[in-house]
């Protein structure tokens, strides 16, 4: 049996859900293992994989920093690997999957399948896109699961689907979002705002931050400037004290789908 290793990054659980779902569907053909790239990963895991599944949320038509760093750190291991990409988004990325796929192909991998999955929005402090919890979120998840089932069937049947690899998708992803996003991304890493009048120093965000960007100082949480913009802390803070892109703390937080 061939070995499939799935590596995911997930801020608020959507991508973890899709990565788990796909891995389970593909387990009829492959021996599977699932890894979170925010945890320490040895290169042995990647080396033994015949097929690699990479799953990540899209941010401004770009893959998140931890996933880009993971791909670059193991750059010498990609040659000859068959790669499947699963990207989650609220509704639009243009070439989200392909934006990482091109890097992987540059390192010698072959992207055999790529798909985008619309999932609930987690950008809680942005007033333009609504946050949905409960049944509305679950409905969207069920649609994504249906798409993931079909995607897995296509992979198992040897059929090709490489969402986002068309030249037009590339142009749309780049000119509508990534070009501007990339300019801001580095700056935003240092701009997480924690309102000290709301923060009660409970430490929930410190414990759950995937990149140890948060610490407690004099009973309050402070950020140390290496945020990866995943929105986990913004959504889990019980006092809604944290914001990143918004000018005010979120009125409604995304609760995630696996609670
Ligand atoms: C900083 C940021 C930027 C985002 N940009 C986009 C985007 O460009 N297009 C989109 O459709 N969704 C966008 N989203 C929504 C997420 O990609 C989507 O909710 C994703 O499923 C979250 O996955 P996660 O729960 O695994 O973190 C963005 C979310 C964040 C936090």
The CATH architecture term of the largest domain is: 3-Layer(aba) Sandwich
Provide the residue-averaged pLDDT.
Answer: 96
Residue runs with pLDDT of under 50 for 5 or more positions: none
Class from helix and strand fractions: alpha/beta
Radius of gyration: 18 Å
Beta-strand percent range: 15-25%
Largest sheet: 6 strands, parallel
In CATH, what is the homologous superfamily of the largest domain?
Flavodoxin domain
The first-level CATH class name of the largest domain: Alpha Beta
- CATH topology of the largest domain, by name, is Rossmann fold
End-to-end span in angstroms? Answer: 34 Å
The H-and-E topology, N to C, reads as EHEHEHEHEHEHEHEEHE
Shape descriptor reads: globular
Helix count?
Answer: 8
Which hetero compounds are present in the coordinates? flavin mononucleotide
Give a description of the structure.
This protein is α/β, with parallel strands linked by helices and 259 residues long. The protein contains eight helices and ten strands. Strands 2-1-3-4-5-6 form a six-stranded parallel beta sheet, sandwiched between helices. A two-stranded antiparallel sheet has the order 7-10. The radius of gyration is 18 Å and the shape is globular. The two termini are 34 Å apart. Flavin mononucleotide (FMN) is lined by residues 10-15, 57-61, 88-93, 119, 121-123, 177, 229-231.
